[in-house]
Design brief:
0% strand; elongated; 138 residues; Hemerythrin-like domain-containing protein; single chain; 5 helices; mainly alpha
Amino acid sequence: MSGKGLKHVDSHSAIHEAALNEAKEINNILWKLIEDNQMDKALEAAYIAVEHWETRTLRHADAEESGLYKELVKESPELKEEVIALTRDHNTMRFLVSEIKQSLEKEGFNKQVLEKLHALVYVDAFHNQEEERILPEH
């Protein structure tokens, strides 16, 4: 059973907005560190970004998949395809985070890592929009 916050669109939206704004801020810090050629600090910040995605967004995604999504489909079977798409978004984010971690471990920080972190923000923003679109109906 999902918590009340996950099923209430306003609180769910606030959770999304806070995590996404934090991710954007970390990306901005990373960009500034690159501009200042502080690659050691950028590497540290990139690991912080990975931790952020794992503990904030992906942990939230796990909660959605184990509770909210199952409840939505049970209550409204016509949402099955939309829930599958939302789960696919989560898997895309998991894939990107995994790719970033591997890249950091093998090559250190580089601009491609920042590009993937930006991609995460865009995937998550679209995902949040689509998820919040189906929540008000329930």
